[in-house]
Design brief:
- 2 copies of one chain form a homodimer.
- By secondary structure, chain A is an alpha/beta fold.
- Chain A is 43% helix and 15% strand.
- In chain A, strands 2-1-3-4-5-11 form a 6-stranded parallel sheet, with helices on both faces. In chain A, strands 7-6-8-9 form a 4-stranded parallel sheet, sandwiched between helices.
- In chain A, α7 (140-148) links the parallel β3 and β4.
- Chains A and B meet through α3, α4, α5, β2 and α6 of A and α3, α4, α5, β2 and α6 of B.
- β2 (102-106) of chain A pairs antiparallel with β2 (102-106) of chain B.
C-alpha cells in the first residue's frame, strides 16, 4: 500500500510537521472524534496546507466507513418546497453531524430509475448506508437495498419479510388522540376531509381517525378531495349534512384553507361555530386566521432514531428486529372552539 | 496500482461478466454520461452484485474528480425551515444532478468553526469543490477557501481581491423595478419597512429602493424593525406620517403580515387604500389576504449558473473574472391597488 501520493506528500510528512504520530494523522481523517479539538484542528489544517491526499480505498478498508449517509431526497418545487421534508432534512443533518456523519443527497438523473442511482453510489463507494423517505407500499428501493444487503434505514415503514430498520410517526395513534381532544371538548359528530391517494401515511391517519371515533363513541362523515377547489365543495357537502358535524379534521394541513373557505361559505365561524384540525403543522398553519390546531411530527427525534439505527447496522452489523413508532405532538391553536 | 481489491473482484472480472471492455467499466464509475443508459445500467448492476469496489484514490487521480460538490448548508428551524434556502437546495440538487454531480451537505459540529469543517472535507478527499451561501462581508469561509486554492463558488458575492466565482440576484435592480411598478401605478410617496441587520442582501435591497425612489422622482420614508411586534409599530408610524405613504415596501416577506396588521390598525384596506409589496416570494406570500405582490428569485437559474461556474473551475482550472448578477421576477398579486 503506497504511503506516498502523487503530489509527493506522505502521511509521515504531515505527522512530522504536526509533531504527532502517523496514527494521529490517520485518526484526524478516519476517527476525528478520538482527538482533542486542538490536535484535530492543527492536523487537518496541515493536511490541507501540505496538500496531503489520503488513499480513499485504503482508508475505507482500514476504518470500514466513509462516514457518509446517502439520502434519496424527494423532489419538490423550488418555489414552494415541502416544508415537512425540508424540516426533516435539517433534522437529519443535525442528527448525523453530531455523530460525525455527513449527508450525501441522491437524486436519479432524468429518466433514471431510483435503484440505478442507488447502485451508482454503492458501486462508487460513496456512502456507508442509505436512508429512504416517502416510502410507498412495495417500494422497489427497499426491496433493492434489502436484496443487496447494503445498510439502510427508512423514514416510513417496510413490509413483512423485509429488514425492519424503520422509524415512523405513530400516525394512527396521533389521529386517534386528535379525535379524543375533540370528544373531550364535547364534539359528538365529526367530519374527515381526506384524499383519494393511497399513500401509507394517509391510510394510517384515516384508520386512526376511525378508531378514535369508535373509541370515543362518536359518529362521523367523510369526503375526499385532491385539489383546493374540490376540497371546498367537499367541505361544504360535509357541513351541509344533517346532522352537521361540529368539527372537521383535514388529513393534511394543505386542506385546511379549503375547510375554512367551506365554513365561511356555510356561514360558520371557524373557532366559534366549527372546530377545524389538521396534520403536519406546516409553517402556514400558525398563520391561518384563526391559527390551525394540528399535529406536529417529532422530526428531530425521528432523525436521531434513524441515525442511531444506521450506526448499529454499520458498526455492529445488526439490523433492528422491529420498526419504531414515535408519538406526535398536538399543537392546540384557536381553530378549536 | 492493484486492480484486484480486498474482496477479490477485479475490474476485469466485472468487464468479463458484462461483456464489455475494462474502459467501459471504468467509464460507468467515472464518466457515466459517456455510456448508453442500457450499458450503464447493466454494468452498475454487476458492479453492485459482484461487490466490486473501485480504488477511490486511483479513480480520483485518473478522472481528477469525485463528482461531488460540498455545500455548507445554513442552519434552520426544522419546525419552520427557511423556504428560500430549501428551494435553493432543491434547485441545486436538480442542477448538479443534470451534469452528474451530487451534493454533500457540510455542517460544522457543535462549536466547530466553519473553516475546520471545510478542512475536514478537503483533507478526506470528500469533494471536488465547495459551494457557499449566506455569505457575509469579510466571510472567513471565502477567505479560507481562496487562500487554500480549493475550487469554490458563492451564492452571494465575494469582496475585491478575492476570486469572483459568485452568482447573485441583482437585488438592487429588482427593488428599483418594484419601486418603478409602484410609480407606474401613480404612487408618489412610498414607505420602506426594513431591518437593522447589516446583511449584504438587505443593504443591496435598501440601496435599490432608494435608487428607484430617486430615479422615479418619488419621496420616501423608512422605518426599521427586527421582530413582528415592533414591525407593526414601525408600520403604523410610517402610515401615520403626513403626508402618509400610499405604498409600503417590506424588505423581506416576513414583515408583510406586520404591514397588513399596521394597515388594519390605521383603518386602511391593503390592496384598496394601501399598496404593500414584499421580497423573496415565500410560500405564504400567496396565502396572505390579500395575496402579496413580491419579488421571486430565479433559484434554478442561479443554481445552474453556480454549477456551470464550478465545472469551469474543476475541469478547466479557470476562475471567472467577474461575478454574475441575475434578474428577479416581480410576482404581481392583489396587495397592489
Amino acid at each position: 500500500m503506497p504511503a506516498r501520493r502523487a503530489r509527493g506528500v506522505s502521511i509521515e510528512d504531515v505527522a512530522r510537521a504536526a509533531g504527532v504520530s502517523r496514527q494521529t494523522v490517520s485518526n484526524a481523517i478516519n476517527a476525528p472524534q478520538r482527538l482533542r479539538p486542538e490536535t484535530l484542528d492543527r492536523v487537518t489544517e496541515l493536511i490541507r496546507e501540505m496538500g496531503y491526499s489520503p488513499d480513499q480505498s485504503a482508508r475505507s478498508l482500514r476504518s470500514g466507513t466513509r462516514r457518509i449517509i446517502a439520502y434519496t431526497t424527494p423532489e419538490t418545487d423550488p418555489a414552494n418546497p415541502n416544508a415537512l421534508m425540508s424540516g426533516f432534512l435539517e433534522a437529519l443533518v443535525a442528527a448525523s453531524g453530531e455523530v460525525g456523519y455527513r449527508i450525501l443527497l441522491v437524486r436519479p438523473r432524468p429518466g433514471q430509475p431510483q435503484e440505478k442511482a442507488i447502485d451508482e453510489v454503492i458501486a462508487g463507494g460513496g456512502a456507508d448506508a442509505f436512508l429512504l423517505s416517502d416510502v410507498l407500499d412495495g417500494d422497489t428501493r427497499v426491496e433493492h437495498l434489502a436484496a443487496g444487503g447494503f445498510p439502510f434505514a427508512v423514514f416510513g415503514r417496510t413490509g413483512a419479510g423485509l429488514p425492519q430498520s424503520w422509524v415512523d410517526l405513530d400516525s394512527a395513534r396521533a389521529m386517534a388522540d386528535l379525535v379524543g381532544l375533540l370528544a373531550g371538548r364535547g364534539h359528538r359528530h365529526v367530519g374527515l376531509l381526506t384524499m383519494s391517494l393511497d399513500q401509507p401515511w394517509l391510510r394510517h391517519r384515516a384508520e386512526g381517525f376511525r378508531a378514535g371515533v369508535r373509541g370515543h363513541g362518536l359518529t362521523c362523515v367523510e369526503a375526499t378531495a385532491d385539489d383546493p377547489e374540490s376540497a371546498v365543495a367537499a367541505g361544504r357537502e360535509l357541513l351541509g349534512g344533517r346532522p352537521a358535524p361540529t368539527a372537521l379534521v383535514v388529513i393534511d394541513d394543505w386542506l385546511a384553507p379549503a375547510a375554512y373557505a367551506a365554513a365561511q361559505a356555510e356561514g360558520l365561524v371557524v373557532g366559534a361555530d366549527l372546530a377545524v384540525a389538521g396534520f403536519n403543522d406546516m409553517p402556514y398553519a400558525a398563520l391561518l386566521q384563526p391559527p390551525l390546531t394540528t399535529l406536529r411530527l417529532p422530526l428531530r427525534r425521528i432523525a436521531d432514531a434513524l441515525v442511531g439505527r444506521l450506526l448499529t447496522i454499520i458498526d455492529d452489523g445488526v439490523t433492528p428486529e422491529t420498526g419504531l413508532l414515535l408519538p406526535g405532538e398536538i399543537v392546540v391553536r384557536a381553530s378549536l372552539p
